[in-house]
């Protein structure tokens, strides 16, 4: 069970975020978004789920001041409670998809006096940074924030659709790289993996690695699935630098499921990158639902 520490919230935020791994800060200028959760509106009697990741600070913002919070189940959490804010940081590795129970107690004495949530352990890249929780009916401002976020996602989908339509009219190969502007006069630079750090919990074997750079960055990772293991196929990726800057991943390509004993290249391409990203970078690959992540550190680009 975790005991809350009565620190002033600015100091608490500074301490927790300073201790958080560098992957926690996005590189975009996008306004932070909060997923709204209505307490008491659970489906099939199941409490709401919050995705958390080892070393990542997740901020829960309630519409009612809290008295205390308790976490039970696998793992160990640091937590800070300050009025309506609760900050959680998982401190030790546990199996992916493990679940802990978070119980919060409200300070106003009104009913309900407490609420229960499920903390789902995910890869750090999939952890939620901010969640807004409503004990009472949601405010108009909350609906407005959700509407703005929906519009933002819709605009991204429209832009991606426009890019795909434009790409269909362009030639392929080196000609396509030149016409699209993805390759300039300096061509495409390449670099092999050197002194890459593999996470101790990686379930696949790293066989090779290359990085390429033109306007965007391409990472090619050769992986082998050990005999006796389950099939694995990459569905998502994150590239995070030493200052916490996260390069926006445009696409992840794995042609098929990687069966036990087989080898395959997994390709990760970023959006166009301005300037020279300061490394080294950490690459995290995960399968469906964030399971069996592969974490590779100390990756440099040309």
Automatic annotation (TrEMBL):
The keyword Signal applies. Keywords: Coiled coil, Signal. InterPro entries: Mxa_paralog_2268 (IPR011754). It holds the Pfam family DUF2381. The keyword Phosphoprotein does not apply. It comes from the Bacteria. Residues 140-167 form a coiled coil. Residues 1-24 form the signal peptide. This is DUF2381 family protein. It comes from Myxococcus xanthus (strain DK1622).
């Amino acid at each position: 069970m975790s005991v809350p520490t009565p620190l002033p919230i600015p100091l608490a935020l500074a301490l927790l975020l300073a201790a958080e791994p560098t992957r926690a800060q996005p590189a975009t200028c996008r306004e932070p978004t909060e997923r709204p959760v209505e307490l008491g509106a659970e489906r099939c009697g199941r409490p709401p789920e919050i995705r958390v990741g080892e070393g990542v600070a997740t901020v829960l913002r309630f519409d009612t001041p809290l008295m205390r919070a308790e976490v039970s189940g696998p793992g160990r959490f640091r937590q800070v409670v300050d009025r309506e804010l609760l900050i959680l940081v998982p401190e030790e590795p546990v199996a992916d998809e493990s679940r802990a129970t978070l119980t919060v107690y409200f300070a106003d004495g009104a009913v309900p006096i407490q609420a229960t949530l499920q903390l789902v352990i995910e890869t750090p890249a999939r952890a939620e940074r901010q969640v807004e929780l409503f004990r009472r009916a949601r405010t108009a401002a909350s609906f407005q924030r959700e509407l703005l976020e929906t519009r933002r996602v819709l605009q991204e989908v429209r832009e991606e659709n426009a890019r795909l339509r434009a790409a269909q009219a362009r030639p392929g190969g080196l000609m396509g790289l030149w016409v699209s502007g993805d390759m300039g006069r300096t061509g495409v630079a390449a670099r092999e993996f050197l002194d890459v750090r593999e996470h101790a919990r990686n379930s696949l074997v790293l066989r090779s690695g290359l990085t390429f750079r033109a306007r965007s960055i391409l990472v090619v990772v050769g992986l082998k699935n050990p005999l006796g293991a389950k099939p694995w196929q990459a569905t998502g990726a994150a590239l995070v630098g030493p200052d916490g800057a996260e390069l926006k991943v445009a696409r992840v390509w794995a042609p098929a499921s990687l069966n036990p004993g087989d080898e395959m290249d997994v390709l990760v391409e970023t959006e166009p990158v301005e300037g020279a990203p300061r490394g080294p970078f950490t690459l995290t690959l995960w399968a469906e639902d964030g399971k069996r992540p592969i974490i590779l550190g100390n990756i440099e680009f040309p």
